[in-house]
Amino acid sequence: MNMSRSVGVEEELLLLDAESFEPRALSSAVLASARRGRSGTDEAFDAELQRQQLEFATRPQTRMQDLAAEIARWRAEAARHAESLGAAVAALATSPLPVSPTLSTGERYQWMQERYGLTADEQLTGGCHVHVSVDSDEEGVAVLDRIRPWLSVLLAMSANSPFWQGQDSGYASYRSRVWGRWPSAGPVEIFGSAGRYHELVQAMVATGALRDEGMIYFDARLSRTYPTVEIRVADVCLNADDTALLATLVRALVETAARQWRDDEPPSRHSVGLLRLATWQAGREGLDGQLIHPATMEPASAETVVRALFDHVRDALEDTDDLVPAQDALAEILKRGNGARTQRELLEQTGSLRDIVARCTLRTI
User: Fold this and answer.
1) Does residue 1 lie in a domain region?
2) Model-level pTM greater than 0.90?
3) For the chain, what is the domain count?
4) C-alpha 128, offset from chain centre
């Protein structure tokens, strides 16, 4: 039994011109600046598909306070390196302002562009990936089987991409719609065993539609690199505190699922079709409408569904002393709303997409 699972977070940030707030293809220059800094920051940062993006990864942490501090640190470091180049960073999952993305260099990205065309060319989206340690692939797949219905709730909480190419998309998370264009993206079936999971992954790669296992873009998967499950369904959150809450809930969700597996409690057998609808609804409404309840697969208010997730993982939160801080953070996000609500409120106040981005750069760090 793993009572204090380690958690790591990867966040994808937008790189912007510090005056116009339009996305800028500066990832190579920012990475070079980080390497010159010699403060260990080059190990945290990495390039992404598009050069208007920068990714960072925290180290694995077992105390959520330490993880929250590291998220804040790397956001601030990213901003510092960008500032030295006349740029800024924003934790936005899509660019509110129009943008023509610039594909990163390298054989892999070139292959993706040739294979996927506009899907690759237009894919300027920022996600948040949460890694939680598991004891084995068998435990990891048992967790994947049991967290399926709850992943849409994480998307709703994190939704932070209402605007696309200069207009309101009508969605709280339009990133989730754009990301869903990849052939392997989205909810998946129940696997039942690690063997069956790996068989499916190998069969998918063998079709030739994917370059390699790195292109298995399930909403949650076994990591290829670390002994973790990787939950990939969320938008990058505007507020670092929301990222920390998301990671806290994900760890508790993984622990709850592992306990269910050890107690021989079978996973919910909701179909992929229903889970896709729940994901669509979460991306459409965020926290401002009805979601599909993970237990019943019927409509319920966003607050009811979010509180159902909290109740589902309550025991695990209590066992890691995260219950009270998570309760406070949850109350805050339900009151304030997610990044999508904040962005739309800023548009109402300012009437300007440019001003939205300017203000969101300040909220990022």
Assistant:
1) no
2) yes
3) 1
4) 2
